[in-house]
Amino acid sequence: MKTNCAVTQDLLPLYEEELLQPDTQRFVEEHLQSCQECWKIAEQSQIPLPSKVNPGSSPKKMIRKITVKLTTIQIFFVAIAFVLAMSTTVMNDNRDFILTYTILGVAVYLFYRSVLVAILLAAVPNFIWNCLLYMTDIFRDYYADSFFEALGMALINLATHLLFTVIGIAIGFCIRKIMEE
Ligand SMILES: [Zn+2]
């Protein structure tokens, strides 16, 4: 910690002149937030200080808040993915899935910036749902004659749905590139 203090204090003049690299500036600001001693020194040198984090939101609390928010969104996405899986089955001759799975791909990819997460979110609920559909007789109309027939149908279904999720991911990727420019 003492080394950080010395480094921060050495950097203060540069910080005041706004000559620091963004990462270094962040380091100084973070240190100032957490170190009374350096904060006082900066204050005495009349260096414009970063606004103090209010005591109510310690970093830990903030992280927890963000995690809770993320988890809520994750549950939301998973729920949506399940609803989509249930409402759209190719065999049902329902073509809505083309649009909904594309949108799902776009939304999840833009949110998580991860192709893997987007594919898993679309694929897992879909596969589970189709296995339920074809392997159990809860929904008698769809009950397949054999396990392999059911598995085959579930996989074909999965592949057709994923195709549009991948298209969605590609659209999401393009949107991201355009936004970043
Ligand atoms: Zn310090």
Q: Biggest β-sheet: count, sense, barrel?
A: none
Q: Indicate the proportion of strand residues.
A: under 5%
> What do the pLDDT scores average to?
84
Bound molecules: zinc ion
| Number of continuous helical runs | 7
- The helix/strand series, from N terminus to C terminus, equals HHHHHHH
User: Which segments are poorly predicted (pLDDT under 50) over 5 or more consecutive residues?
Assistant: none
What sort of overall outline do the alpha carbons produce when their principal axes are compared? elongated
Q: How would you portray this structure in words?
A:
With 181 residues, this protein is mainly alpha-helical. 76% of the residues lie in helices and 0% in strands. It contains 7 helices and no strands. The radius of gyration is 26 Å and the shape is elongated. Residues 4-5, 8, 31, 35, 37-38 line the site of zinc ion (ZN).
Summary of the model, kept short:
With 181 residues, the chain is mostly helical. The chain is built from seven helices and no strands.
List keywords for this structure.
about 180 residues, single chain, mainly alpha, binds zinc ion, about 75% helix
How do the strands and helices of this protein lay out in sequence?
Elements: H1 2-16, H2 22-34, H3 36-44, H4 59-87, H5 96-112, H6 115-135, H7 147-180
